[in-house]
Structure formats: structure tokens, C-alpha cells
From TrEMBL:
Protein name: ABC-2 type transport system ATP-binding protein
Keyword Flavoprotein listed: no
Gene Ontology biological process terms, A to Z: response to antibiotic
Keywords annotated in UniProt: Antibiotic resistance, ATP-binding, Cell membrane, Membrane, Nucleotide-binding, Translocase, Transport
Entry GO terms, CC: plasma membrane
Alphabetical list of SMART domains matching this protein: AAA (SM00382)
Subcellular localization(s) per the UniProt record: Cell membrane
Any one GO molecular function term: ATP binding
Taxonomic source organism: Streptosporangium saharense
């Protein structure tokens, strides 16, 4: 499988603070890869190094076959970046801005389609300085995807989106991934990572503490299940490695249907919170 992003021993310090402590990373071409972690964990620094916006102190990095520490104009044209902070205000309209940025690329996406996908069609003739914060965020996303990049970096892309705009954005990301675009997503919305990413890495204390598919991250799939039911006017629960057997036993006890029966395994959020609070992740 072709690798779009590769890092070995990636390290970055700010004075005495180790922001990134020897990260190894492989992101496959065409996959959506989510990087999760609390503020100060090192995820933003890691992504900025991959984007070529920050230098590293040690380690080897290859992004689309190029060292981002020595970027070329051609390499820049192959990647798209949606930053966490918006660009400066301008007097141009939304439509003018998107079309202007489209002119930077040899084979851009259709500007009208991109504007529609991020939910800005009704604002296409509005000046950028007149947009709300959420609308500015949607414009940032439009500018990141207009070039139809091979690799797209998304840093908290749906901050400020309403539910409908968020849904349209998810559809756009799935379409891009289906066309072979590699997508690196950092987000605080765990449901977004679970919905979009084929693999997830959790960064804490400047290193990756877990990596895998969302459904199996951190041993999630093999963790004990929680079986809950109602009995005697109370809510009861049992954690077990054999939920099927427990349900069969309860069915016999109740001679049929078990009142308010639920069987759950740890959610991605529960798994994430456990991983980022482990004692060994402290720098």
C-alpha cells in the first residue's frame, strides 16, 4: 500500500518543553486519518511540521515523497490546508474569493460546487468581511479543497458549522476520499473522527499513545461489555467479557423479554479519555 505521509522519530522542543517526542507515523494514500488529542498534546505541532509550516528538531519526514522542511512550489500545489484560524478579512465577495483561489491551481474543483458543499450559496455575493465566524470557517474549508489536492490537511474544519453544513461537509470529505484524496483530520469532535476516519491516532504527552481503526482503538472491541436492565424498580448493570451468555441467563431469569435491556461497549469518547489520562503520557 502506497504511503502518502511517513514520519520516523519526529521531535520538536520549545526550550525545555518537549512538544513532540519521537513520533512514528504512516498514513496511507487515499485514507482519512484522524489525529486526536487534548490541547498541548503535540498534535498541532506535528501537523504543522507535516504541512511544512514548522521546522523539526530531529527525525525523518516524507509527505508525498518530499521533505516538508524543504518544500517546492510544485509540492505546495499538491496539498490543501484548512487552518484552525481564519485568514484576514477582505473586500472581495465569497464567490470572487473562491474563484480567485481556484486560479492558483492547474485543475481546481468547480467553485460553485464547492461553495454549495460548504453551505455558502446564499452568501456567494456577500463580502468576506460581512460573514459571521461560522461562515468564515466554511470559506476557509472551501479554499482548502478548491485546488482538488492529493493531500488535504483539515484542522478543526467544522468549528462553527450548523448541523446541515456539517452534514454537507462530511459528504464532501467522503467524496474526496472516494476519489483517492488523502485526508489528515484533527478534530475535537469524536463523532466526526468516527464517521470519517478509517484510522485514528491519539496523541498525548508529545507521542502517539494509541493508533488503529475507530472501532478497535485502544482495545475497544475486546473490552468488557456493559449489560444493563431494569429489575425491582432499579437500574442494574454488569460488566462482562461474555455478554451473550449474560443476556441468555437474564432471559431465563425473566422467562422471556428482559426489561430495558441494553448491551454496550466503551464509546470512542470513553476510550479516548482513558488514553489521554494514562499516567505514562505525561511528558
Amino acid at each position: 500500500m502506497e504511503t502518502a505521509v511517513k514520519a520516523r522519530g519526529l521531535t520538536k522542543r520549545y526550550g525545555d518543553v518537549r512538544a513532540v517526542g519521537g513520533i512514528d507515523l504512516d498514513i496511507h494514500a487515499g485514507e482519512v486519518f484522524a489525529i486526536l488529542g487534548p490541547n498541548g498534546a503535540g498534535k498541532s505541532t506535528t501537523v504543522e511540521i507535516l504541512e511544512g509550516h514548522r521546522t523539526r528538531d530531529a527525525g525523518e519526514v516524507s509527505v508525498l515523497g518530499v521533505d516538508p522542511g524543504r518544500p517546492t512550489r510544485g509540492w505546495r500545489a499538491r496539498i490543501g490546508i484548512v487552518l484552525q484560524t481564519a485568514n484576514d478579512m477582505t473586500e472581495a465577495t465569497v464567490g470572487e474569493t473562491v474563484r480567485h483561489f481556484a486560479g492558483y491551481y492547474p485543475a481546481p474543483r468547480d467553485p460553485d460546487e464547492v461553495i454549495e458543499r460548504v453551505g455558502l450559496t446564499e452568501n456567494v455575493n456577500r463580502r468576506v468581511r460581512q460573514l459571521s465566524g461560522g461562515q468564515r470557517r466554511r470559506l476557509d474549508v472551501a479554499l482548502g479543497v478548491i485546488g482538488d489536492p492529493e493531500l488535504l490537511f483539515l484542522d478543526e474544519p467544522t468549528t462553527g458549522f450548523d448541523p446541515e453544513a456539517r452534514r454537507r461537509f462530511w459528504e464532501l470529505i467522503r467524496d474526496l476520499a472516494g476519489q483517492g484524496t488523502t485526508i489528515v483530520l484533527t478534530t475535537h469532535y469524536l463523532d466526526e473522527a468516527e464517521a470519517l476516519a478509517s484510522r485514528v491516532a491519539v496523541v498525548a504527552g508529545g507521542r502517539i499513545v494509541a493508533e488503529g481503526e475507530p472501532a478497535t482503538l485502544g482495545g475497544r472491541a475486546s473490552a468488557k461489555a456493559r449489560v444493563s436492565w431494569s429489575e425491582g424498580g432499579e437500574r442494574r448493570a454488569l460488566e462482562t467479557e461474555t455478554p451473550t451468555g449474560t443476556v441468555i441467563e437474564l432471559t431465563r431469569r425473566f422467562d422471556g423479554e428482559v426489561p430495558d435491556l441494553t448491551v454496550t461497549r466503551p464509546t470512542l469518547e470513553e476510550t479516548y479519555l482513558r488514553l489521554v489520562t494514562l499516567p505514562e503520557v505525561t511528558p
